[in-house]
């Protein structure tokens, strides 16, 4: 998070100019104090129940970030065996890791079983194979699709009828049959409806649907309500009010546990809520290009480093960190990739000069983790501010990284 202090922009108390001088641009900077603030806010909001928060590491997978959340007491939400391995390398107890893959092979699930993590299954075919193989020796949870349409871009909504995610609420009889015949032990039920809870009541309704199916599962230990916690991206933007939803949901959850007949744990797996605001992406202005219709700012980055604006049409607030006092002018900010990689149209920024540093806010989630080497560009460095000090936590790539796995045919060329 970037802040103006005594006429200069800082991140986590460290001047942007200092960070850029030390690490160059483009660079992702994460302020761990903001991660902690977000974690504590969520933990406090849901303190009314036996709540466990699992950081969805696909949002930001640097091992130092994982270790930091572990130090706060969080668990981990993973969607691939590689994320499971990273979590174990970061020191998480396998029992604190939930593995929620989609459309993976039984072989990959076997590898996760070997690691001892909580397996979460999202289709009946695999549930049946799993039950036939492990019966009641390895517990599983099931991902249910309640078909509630949460808000946000269609690319992040997963609860609707056309979604590939989860086992439909209308297939519970089939699930019961599989459970009964294979004796597989279902210890949890899960949903993750999409990424933006815009309406607390819609979320509570989805929760009720989940409570209703628990009658089919007598061995539950937890209910995982996924994520969907939205953070504000611009001044007046809508966000999920966790202080509103927390007490309402935990009261209802405890009531449900009484009816179910035993205390259960309440799990959540936020990504964006925990890390989005902690991250700032710093880029340098290469060129200012006046065309017939616009003033383009071309920066030393593009959709290879931050694809969210192009993929999700997301808004990222941009600050000219080099010119706090400049007059406001209208610009269109674009990348250097040979694609139309527009970060922002018609954006008001304090006057931009070539060489200035622009700061993209809300860049902690799905920023670096979605980056690529397109156009043979290097992925940027990552810096983490921890206990008031800045640390390089990922080196900028080099030509060796670009060529690393390429194999040349002998005698060619
Ligand atoms: C991506 C994902 C999350 C995190 O979503 P956010 O919108 O970043 O909070 C949680 N659970 C699952 C299963 C996911 O795939």
Let me know the CATH homologous superfamily of the largest domain. Answer: Alanine racemase
CATH level-1 class of the largest domain:
Alpha Beta
Low-pLDDT regions:
none
How would you characterize the largest beta sheet? 9 strands, mixed
Extended strand count: 21
The portion of residues assigned to helices is 25-40%
What is the domain tally? Answer: 2
Beta-strand residue percentage: 25-35%
Span from first to last CA? 50 Å
Which features does this protein show?
single chain; 413 residues; alpha/beta; Lyase, Ornithine Decarboxylase, Chain A, domain 1; TIM Barrel; nine-stranded mixed sheet; eight-stranded parallel barrel; 12 helices; 29% helix; 25% strand; globular; binds pyridoxal-5'-phosphate
Concise structural overview:
This protein has 413 residues and is α/β, with parallel strands linked by helices. Helix content is 29%, strand content 25%. Strands 4, 14, 15, 16, 17, 18, 19, 20 and 21 form a nine-stranded mixed beta sheet that branches.
Give me the secondary-structure topology.
Blueprint: E1 2-5, E2 8-11, E3 14-15, H1 16-23, E4 27-31, H2 32-45, E5 51-56, H3 63-72, E6 75-78, H4 81-89, E7 97-99, H5 106-115, E8 118-121, H6 124-134, E9 140-145, E10 167-168, H7 172-182, E11 186-190, H8 200-213, E12 222-224, H9 242-260, E13 265-268, H10 272-275, E14 279-290, E15 295-299, H11 308-311, E16 318-320, E17 328-334, E18 342-350, E19 357-360, E20 381-386, E21 389-394, H12 399-403
Parallel strand pairs: 4-20, 5-6, 5-13, 6-7, 7-8, 8-9, 9-10, 9-11, 11-12, 12-13, 15-17
Antiparallel strand pairs: 1-2, 2-3, 4-14, 14-15, 14-19, 16-19, 17-18, 20-21
Helix pairs in contact: 2-3, 2-9, 4-5, 6-7
The structure holds pyridoxal-5'-phosphate.
């Amino acid at each position: 998070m970037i802040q103006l202090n005594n006429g200069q922009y800082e991140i986590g108390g460290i001047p942007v100019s200092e960070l850029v001088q030390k690490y160059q641009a483009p660079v992702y900077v994460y302020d761990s104090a903001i991660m902690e603030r977000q974690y504590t806010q969520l933990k406090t909001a849901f303190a009314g129940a036996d709540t466990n928060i699992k950081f969805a590491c696909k949002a930001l997978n640097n091992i130092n970030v994982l270790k930091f959340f572990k130090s706060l007491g969080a668990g981990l939400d993973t969607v691939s065996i590689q994320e499971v391995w990273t979590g174990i390398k970061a020191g998480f107890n396998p029992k604190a890791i939930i593995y929620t893959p989609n459309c993976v092979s039984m072989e990959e699930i076997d590898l996760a079983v070997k690691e001892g993590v909580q397996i979460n299954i999202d289709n009946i075919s695999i549930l049946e194979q799993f039950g036939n193989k492990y019966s009641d020796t390895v517990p599983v949870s099931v991902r249910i699709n309640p078909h509630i349409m949460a808000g946000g871009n269609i690319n992040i909504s997963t609860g609707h009828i056309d979604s590939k995610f989860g086992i439909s609420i209308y297939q519970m009889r089939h699930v019961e049959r599989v459970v009964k015949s294979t004796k597989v032990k279902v210890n949890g039920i899960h949903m993750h409806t999409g990424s933006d809870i815009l309406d607390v009541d819609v979320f509570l309704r989805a929760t009720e649907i989940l409570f209703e199916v628990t009658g089919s599962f007598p061995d539950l230990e937890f209910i995982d309500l996924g994520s969907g916690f939205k953070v504000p991206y611009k001044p007046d933007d809508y966000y999920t009010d966790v202080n509103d939803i927390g007490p309402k949901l935990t009261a209802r959850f405890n009531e449900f546990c009484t009816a179910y007949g035993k205390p259960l744990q309440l799990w959540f797996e936020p990504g964006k809520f925990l890390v989005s605001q902690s991250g700032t992406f710093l880029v340098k202005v290469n060129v200012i290009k006046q065309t017939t219709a616009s003033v383009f700012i071309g920066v030393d980055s593009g959709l290879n480093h931050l694809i969210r604006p192009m993929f999700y049409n997301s808004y990222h607030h941009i600050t000219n960190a080099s010119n706090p006092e400049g007059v406001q002018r209208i610009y269109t900010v674009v990348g250097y990739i040979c694609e139309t990689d527009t970060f922002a149209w018609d954006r008001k920024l304090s006057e931009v000069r070539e060489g200035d540093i622009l700061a993209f806010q809300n860049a902690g989630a799905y920023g670096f983790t979605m980056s690529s080497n397109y156009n043979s560009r290097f992925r940027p460095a990552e810096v983490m501010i921890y206990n008031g000090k800045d640390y390089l936590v990922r080196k900028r790539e080099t030509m060796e990284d670009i060529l690393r796995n390429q194999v040349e045919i002998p005698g060619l060329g």
